[in-house]
């Protein structure tokens, strides 16, 4: 069997990141929950060397394993795939409640910085009603300051029959979230500098200007 690369010891991976001047290591694309033990070992080694770690994950993990998985991480981005059980059952072969439990646990019982991303898929999870329910639950259980990202779907793999998300859908969802009281709501996978920048929740001043991968104005003192 061909292989792309040799297995990397956690210590070697952390050393390579530090020597390359990397400030952080991200476990992403393949959900790190499926290789939790290795991710934990890498996070421990990275922290010992002053390198931060972040997990991009669906948040679908048993409560017994949750504490150990997040204990050594510095940050996480949780994919909240939708806000209905039928979506999770049909498209993810999973359930919604365990993901919500992870989010509440992160908010109330951990020091991990976390943000939430929802990919809006036309005809699947993008109605005003569902987005409104998601936002209402979000502010009631996570508060107004946890960042929420709405990102655009594009046809790929087994979902080639669904069109790309119109930018207007993202703009509408962002406005719904802001109107309900969330402070930091972003749009992704579209060109929208306004929806990618960070604003002061109190006065509305733009603090960090972003446009795609370009960083512009920066008004933070710390």
UniProtKB/TrEMBL annotation:
Q: Which Pfam families match?
A: Radical_SAM (PF04055)
Enumerate the InterPro entries for this protein.
Aldolase_TIM, AmmeMemoSam_rS, Organic_radical-activating, rSAM, rSAM_sf
The protein's UniProt keywords, in alphabetical order, are: 4Fe-4S, Iron, Iron-sulfur, Metal-binding, S-adenosyl-L-methionine
**The protein's required cofactors:** [4Fe-4S] cluster
Domain Radical SAM core intervals: 4-131
Q: Does Iron show up as a keyword for this record?
A: yes
- Quote the NCBIfam families the UniProt record gives: AmmeMemoSam_rS
Query: By what name is this protein known?
Result: Radical SAM core domain-containing protein
The source organism is: marine metagenome
């Amino acid at each position: 069997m061909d292989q792309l690369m040799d297995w990397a010891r956690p210590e070697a991976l952390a050393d390579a990141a530090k020597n390359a001047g990397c400030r952080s290591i991200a476990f992403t694309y393949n959900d790190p929950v499926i290789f939790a033990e290795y991710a934990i070992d890498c996070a421990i080694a990275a922290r010992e060397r002053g390198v931060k770690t972040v997990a991009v994950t669906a948040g679908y993990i048993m409560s017994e394993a949750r504490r150990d998985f997040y204990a050594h991480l510095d940050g996480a981005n949780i994919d909240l795939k939708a806000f209905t059980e039928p979506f999770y059952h049909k498209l993810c072969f999973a359930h919604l409640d365990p993901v919500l439990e992870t989010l509440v646990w992160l908010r109330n019982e951990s020091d991990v910085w976390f943000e939430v991303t929802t990919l809006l898929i036309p005809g699947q999870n993008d109605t005003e009603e569902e987005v409104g329910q998601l936002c209402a639950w979000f502010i009631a259980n996570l508060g107004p300051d946890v960042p929420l990202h709405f990102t655009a779907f594009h046809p790929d793999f087994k979902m080639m029959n669904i069109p790309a998300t119109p930018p207007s859908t993202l703009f509408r969802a962002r406005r719904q979230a802001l109107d309900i009281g969330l402070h930091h709501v972003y749009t992704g996978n579209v060109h929208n500098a306004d929806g990618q920048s960070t604003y002061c929740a109190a006065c509305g001043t733009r603090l960090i200007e972003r446009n795609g991968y370009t960083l512009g104005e920066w008004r933070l003192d710390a």
